[in-house]
């Protein structure tokens, strides 16, 4: 499960537009997305940061701003600015929760951000918050790949925190879902946000 910025969200979220010769928040976000997709996370981070300078941003919808905070937070985390990354992902979560968005996606990223830093107890806590929000029966059918990935990463966090028996139990749940549904494949490594891999 990935978070995409659709043209509809952009058009609905943006209340104004830049004057001729000026770049708008949408222009910066489009450029940042292109940079991220070619592996230039530092370039993406700088472009997402520029998006916050747009005067029209205050007039956009909460969900639009949640996407911007989310993507900026991911780029910050990849470039090893962990504290700021956590702030941005938390802002995305809060905006999504207030506006009825899919806020557990940001929680999952906060968990993985902490997991990448080997902050296992904190990561486990975030994963537990994600799992509380999900109906196991529904999510296993609707988004098995996402659910299996969360369970497997949760197991890693639990093991790192010294909670091995719980980790084993969670791993068994993930394995059971895989056995029931061959499409329940965990995200490949290059599809997870590569936190902490582009440090200066």
Task: Supply database-style keywords.
mainly alpha, 67% helix, globular, Serine Threonine Protein Phosphatase 5, Tetratricopeptide repeat
Strand content: under 5%
Report how far apart the termini are. Answer: 29 Å
For the record, the count of structural domains works out to: 2
Q: Largest beta sheet, briefly?
A: none
For the CA atoms, what is the radius of gyration?
18 Å
Q: Find the CATH superfamily of the largest domain.
A: Tetratricopeptide repeat domain
Q: Which structural class do the helices and strands define?
A: mainly alpha
H/E element order: HHHHHHHHHH
CATH architecture of the largest domain: Alpha Horseshoe
CATH topology of the largest domain: Serine Threonine Protein Phosphatase 5, Tetratricopeptide repeat
Mean pLDDT, nearest integer? 86
Present the secondary structure layout.
Elements: H1 7-13, H2 25-37, H3 41-51, H4 62-78, H5 82-99, H6 104-116, H7 120-133, H8 136-142, H9 144-160, H10 164-180
Helix pairs in contact: 1-4, 2-3, 3-4, 4-5, 5-6, 6-7, 6-9, 7-9, 8-9, 9-10
Structural summary, described in words:
The chain has helices at residues 7-13, 25-37, 41-51, 62-78, 82-99, 104-116, 120-133, 136-142, 144-160, 164-180. By secondary structure, it is mostly helical. Mean pLDDT is 86; it is low at 4-22.
Quick summary:
This protein is mainly alpha-helical and 200 residues long.
